[in-house]
Write a structure and sequence with these properties.
The chain is of the alpha/beta class. It has three domains: about 90 residues; about 100 residues, Rossmann fold (3-Layer(aba) Sandwich); about 250 residues, ATPase, nucleotide binding domain (Nucleotidyltransferase, domain 5). Helix content is about 35%, strand content about 30%. The protein contains 14 helices and 22 strands. A five-stranded antiparallel beta sheet has the order 1-2-3-4-5. A five-stranded mixed beta sheet has the order 12-11-10-13-17, with helices on both faces. α13 links the parallel β21 and β22. The longest helix is centred in the C-terminal third of the chain and has 20 residues. The chain is flat. It starts with 6 loop residues before the first helix and ends with a helix.
């Protein structure tokens, strides 16, 4: 376990964890490794692992879906903080002490007929002791709600959206209800059709991508830590990566939590600094308006919060804070040599307002108080308009086309980059943009499915430029 200054705290925390027994789960020290404490239910496996340098790993794996629902590393500093993180972990374990029901969402035009069918299905499931939970939703709320369910069933009247729904909800099992079964409310036929869908999911594995190509040699000459935040389904992913002086990736970690706070960023920094104390600069990429190190992201509890000052005071190190869309635009621009003025529209979550990052002739556009790209303030993107449009693919197509039309008219980019779950066909988008802008002015449109690598690369490049500017 090591003999660091915090060894006594580590031992105290370990003993405390072993006292947190419950009839709802099994807890034991692994026979294979005494540094691992296992917490198990029939439907999940959690582990508390103690590493050298006072680093502790916590994770919970949902054995039904084979996906991590909680995953993080942190360095031991205070017993109170370690206990708090363990309690968060236990919340996930407790949710999986009983077998989670298979959650099935039915959808039709208004949700009325599927609502009645869902009621019948729930009654029959209870009578037959089947572990299902059925709900119904209107088509207008399907994509906003689907992330909470395992299987999606489409009523005959909206079966025409099946191909689109499959592409958008690619991590869900989407099926059409046959008209005969729907017309007769044949609950047994539904149960029979669900059985083949309950095969165990493929085990979720983490992959570490290689280095993106660069159109020019960019070498930071020092070690740089980059941290980025992404929202996936109902979880938040913190990704942290370290580039060495040769631009090689020497460290790549992911944390998964259901909520975020400044303390989560501290934990990522603590671990990275413990392993690589010679990190010269840390870049943090987050959504929201970032001006002079202050972050405005009310949905996550940041209201003109001086994040940069908090980090700088805590660690006495140099940090920079950047908008995520800007970082992605920089990362893409630097990894290819075909386009010189890309604009990137980032709308990752259903029902949310997007953000734009733009580079014109090699220059990142941030604007007065860094408000450039905050398309939430466009008249066409007003809250009332956004709420009525951005829940469905059809409405999102209109909203995104209007935003892109504004980008074309004001910035004139030579390529439009798009990350938006609800848009699967660029041809449809081009036709919609053509309602506002003559087709000859519409540039190439490139869809980016994976943005993490561009974001972290862009953050590294912005850190490198900040170091060069400081030397000048």
């Amino acid at each position: 376990m090591g003999t660091t200054a915090n060894s006594n705290l580590i031992d105290e925390f370990r003993q405390w964890v072993l006292t947190q027994t419950s009839p709802n789960y099994r807890m034991f020290v692994s026979e294979k490794d005494e540094n691992v404490i296992v917490i198990e239910t029939s439907y999940c496996r959690g582990e508390v692992t103690f590493f050298p340098m006072d680093i502790i790993q916590l994770y919970v794996l949902n054995l039904v879906t084979n996906r991590h629902v909680f995953y993080l590393h942190f360095q031991m500093h205070t017993l109170e903080h370690a206990m708090k993180l363990f309690d968060e972990m236990l919340e996930c374990v407790k949710e999986l002490t009983a077998k989670p029901p298979v959650r099935v969402l039915l959808s039709c035009t208004s949700g009325l007929t599927t609502g009645f069918f869902a009621q019948k299905l729930n009654e029959s499931a209870q009578l037959l002791s089947l572990n299902y939970e059925f709900s119904a939703v209107s088509y207008g709320n399907l994509y906003q709600t689907a992330s909470q369910y395992d299987i999606i069933l489409l009523a005959p009247q909206i079966s025409y959206i099946y191909d689109t729904a499959q592409k958008i909800l690619h991590n869900k099992k989407v099926r059409k209800i046959p008209p005969r079964i729907f017309a007769t409310y044949d609950v047994r036929a539904i149960f029979s059709s669900l059985e083949p869908l309950l095969e165990p999911a493929a085990r979720h594995t983490r992959s570490y991508p290689g280095r993106l190509p660069l159109k020019q040699q960019i070498k930071p000459h020092v070690k740089i830590l980059t941290i980025g935040l992404l929202h996936e389904d109902n979880h938040y992913l913190f990704t942290s990566r370290i580039y060495n002086e040769h631009n090689d990736i020497i460290y790549d970690e992911v944390s998964i939590k259901s909520r975020i706070s400044l303390e989560d960023i501290y934990d990522l920094c603590d671990m990275a600094f413990a392993i690589y104390p010679d990190i010269q600069l840390t870049g943090l990429s987050m959504p929201g308006i970032i001006d002079e190190g202050r972050l405005t992201l009310p949905a996550q509890g940041f209201d003109d919060s001086n994040v940069l000052e908090c980090l700088s005071k805590k660690y006495s190190r140099k940090f920079i804070l950047c908008n995520d869309a800007n970082c992605i635009a920089v990362g893409y621009y630097s990894s290819q040599d075909r386009y010189h003025s890309p604009s990137f529209l980032f709308q990752p979550a259903v029902g949310s307002s997007g953000g734009v990052g733009s580079i014109i002739n090699g220059q990142l556009i941030e604007g007065y108080k860094h408000v450039a790209g905050e398309i939430q303030y466009l008249p066409t993107n007003s809250k009332s308009n956004r709420c009525s449009l951005c829940l469905t693919p059809e409405g999102t197509l209109t909203l995104v086309a209007q935003s892109i039309a504004s980008m074309i008219c004001i910035l004139g980019p030579d390529v439009l980059l798009l990350s938006c779950r609800l848009i699967v066909q660029t041809d449809d988008l081009i036709r919609e943009i053509g309602k506002y802008v003559p087709t000859k002015y519409i540039p190439d449109i490139v869809q980016l499915d994976q943005v993490k690598d561009y974001m972290l690369l862009g953050q590294m490049i912005l850190c490198t430029e900040a170091l060069e500017a400081a030397k000048a």
